[in-house]
Design brief:
The chain has 13 helices and no strands. The chain is mainly α and 403 residues long. Helix 4 runs parallel beside helix 6 and helix 9 packs antiparallel against helix 10. The longest helix has 31 residues.
């Protein structure tokens, strides 16, 4: 009955979209409805391709697409429909028009139900609390992912003169090629749920999937080793926040065995590989500069190391569960290097010793003589009281007449 009711709802939505669509392209809304159907199967690749095609040549279609997804998310109480909507948003952020980043950010900040699903709860299925929890954490991950992209774009635009070399490797926020929805070996071994075709362009955070248009590309990112400590620590903060959101996406309870959850988890796990590599790169640079930084910067770097040590332990356990479940191939996972307690103790001891040192004197104070000669105090002249000054006597009239 539930499946039949979902099919009727989908057909009704499709019919309404064809007759009285609120967008400038009814075909776009129909494709979105089909990609967010109630059936317990991943969206067909042809529907996603149709959405990408419609939004590739018109900013108005991008805005309409975000509005339709947001409207359906606001009405649904089905975790499958909500999860499909988030998977579609993920794909659009990876392979869609770059304007999707701004449109989705504006829609979320306006309070529309797009990536703000903190109060989402499924009412269409029994025992679906774990599935609803995964939908909420997945939405938080996408929101933080978008925040990280826009932060990097803003930082790169502020220092666009520092362009990286052409042979610099790609990063997860730039052109990282992420196959979407393929290769999940759980449930039915060896299934491929719509692999991403590289012929359309590179996926990833900035990948638009349009190679034939002369569009304004985001400025290149400054190499990590050339970043100033303030920006380096800011980048580390955003990466660690994103890693926290990823770790929270680990499904629990009944959601661990749900096929749709595993399909949605696959591209997130693939993106985490490059996220882990970027965090390791920043940690290496911070360690190289640790003993030469200012005290306040060293303290922030130590806090980042302590936080990263805990995160990497959780990441290793998450990867172990993913391998056992069959999310991606075991050969694809990076070798996670844990931060040793000895390194943390060394950094902590250095921070304690440095806090006991007297503050360093400035070069001006060091150049000054130890015992400067006494300065003679000048005697201050007494200030005369204006009220005490007597007026001069008036000149005699006879003397004036003679002159």
């Amino acid at each position: 009955m539930r499946k039949a009711l979902g099919a009727v709802k989908d057909q009704t939505s499709i019919s309404l979209a064809k007759v009285s669509s609120s967008t400038s392209s009814p075909e776009l809304e129909v494709a979105i409805v089909k990609a967010m159907s109630h059936d317990n199967d991943p969206a067909e690749e042809r529907h996603v391709r149709e959405i990408l095609t419609h939004t590739s040549y018109s900013r108005a279609h991008v805005s309409d697409c975000v509005a339709v997804i947001s409207r359906r998310l606001g009405k649904t109480r089905d975790w499958i429909v909500a999860l499909k909507a988030l998977m579609l948003v993920h794909r659009l952020l990876a392979d869609g028009d770059p304007s999707f980043h701004q449109e989705i950010l504006y829609a979320t900040r306006r309070g529309t139900r797009l990536l703000n699903l903190s109060d989402f709860r499924d009412e269409a299925h029994s025992n679906s609390w774990d599935h609803s929890a995964f939908v909420r954490t997945y939405a938080l991950y996408l929101d933080q992912r978008l925040e990280c992209v826009l932060y990097e774009r803003k930082q790169s635009s502020s220092s666009s003169s520092d362009a990286p070399p052409r042979d610099q490797p790609r990063r997860y926020h730039d052109d990282f090629d992420v196959p979407y929805g393929g290769g999940v070996n759980g449930g039915r071994g060896g299934d491929s749920y719509g692999r991403y075709s590289p012929g359309r362009g590179n996926g990833g955070y900035y990948g638009s999937g349009r190679d034939d248009r002369n569009e304004r590309k985001p400025p290149p990112m400054t190499p990590v080793r050339e970043m100033k400590p303030e920006r380096l620590l800011g980048r580390m903060h955003h990466l660690q926040q994103l890693l926290d959101r990823f770790l929270a996406c680990r499904p629990t309870g009944a959601a661990k065995h749900a096929r749709m959850v595993l399909v949605a988890l696959y591209p997130v796990v693939r993106e985490s590989f490059q996220l882990y590599a970027d965090i390791c790169e920043v940690l290496a640079v911070l360690l190289d500069r640790f003993f030469d930084m200012e005290y306040s910067e060293s303290a922030k770097a130590f806090d980042a190391y302590a936080r990263a040590a805990k995160q990497i332990d959780e990441l290793s356990a998450f990867y172990a569960w993913c391998k056992d479940t069959g999310v991606a191939r075991s050969s694809e996972y990076p070798e996670v290097q844990k931060i040793t307690d000895k390194l943390l103790e060394t950094l902590d001891e250095f921070m304690r010793d440095r806090s006991k040192r007297p503050p360093e004197k400035s070069p001006v104070s060091e150049a000054a003589p130890a015992n400067p000669p006494p300065v003679e105090e000048e005697e201050e002249e007494p200030v005369q009281d204006i009220n005490g000054i007597k007026a001069l006597p008036a000149p005699e009239r006879e003397h004036i007449k003679q002159e």
